[in-house]
Amino acid sequence: GAGVSQSPSNKVTEKGKDVELRCDPISGHTALYWYRQSLGQGLEFLIYFQGNSAPDKSGLPSDRFSAERTGGSVSTLTIQRTQQEDSAVYLCASSARGVSDTQYFGPGTRLTVL
Amino acid sequence: AQSVTQLGSHVSVSEGALVLLRCNYSSSVPPYLFWYVQYPNQGLQLLLKYTSAATLVKGINGFEAEFKKSETSFHLTKPSAHMSDAAEYFCAVRTGGYNKLIFGAGTRLAVHP
Predict the structure, then answer these.
(1) Which residues of B, range 2-31, sit inside 8 Å of A by Cβ?
(2) Strand positions, DSSP E, chain B
(3) pLDDT, block means (10 residues), chain A with 114 residues
(4) B-chain residues within 8 Å CB-CB of A93?
């Protein structure tokens, strides 16, 4: 019943490889967010999905980062040609209606780029 | 632009002592304010939120925070610390026109016997 789930919990990859991170939001939540938590930068917003509207991609750090949300539910964050500076914990959150509602966070995916 | 400043990256208190974690925000419009807690290797859990109703907000685990517009502050307090309160605490702000949370750098709370 759950809360927001994310997979994998840990991912180790080599520099230059592509990775996909998955987020399953709380059932019925229309809004979904991705954040990144890293030692040097703290918690940063990456991207926001609300229903069928165009996503707010203003936080994506480069064009190597992309995300999609299929069927208004599950979301995948893809990082292409990973770099060592991409190492971080990637957190997903969802909320019921978007702006006015509380965001509930998943446990995160810890990405390590060697 | 919105921003959040948390004074003190590390705070240490004795068990049973008052907990005070400081948060100041910058926002040109009335903000929504949040405190989240993060235990080791876990995601963020909402402690409490301010959404322009009562200025004193009570949250889970005995925490509360007071919104003070004149001081642009939203400090988190708990009268008596417990060992289980040891964690990292994040203050965050969001204004009505924005979808994203802007987080402070976090304060790591240590509780010693």
Answers:
(1) none
(2) 3-7, 10-14, 19-26, 31-38, 44-50, 56-58, 64-68, 73-78, 87-95, 102-103, 107-112
(3) 90 98 94 91 90 88 95 93 96 80 92 97
(4) 44
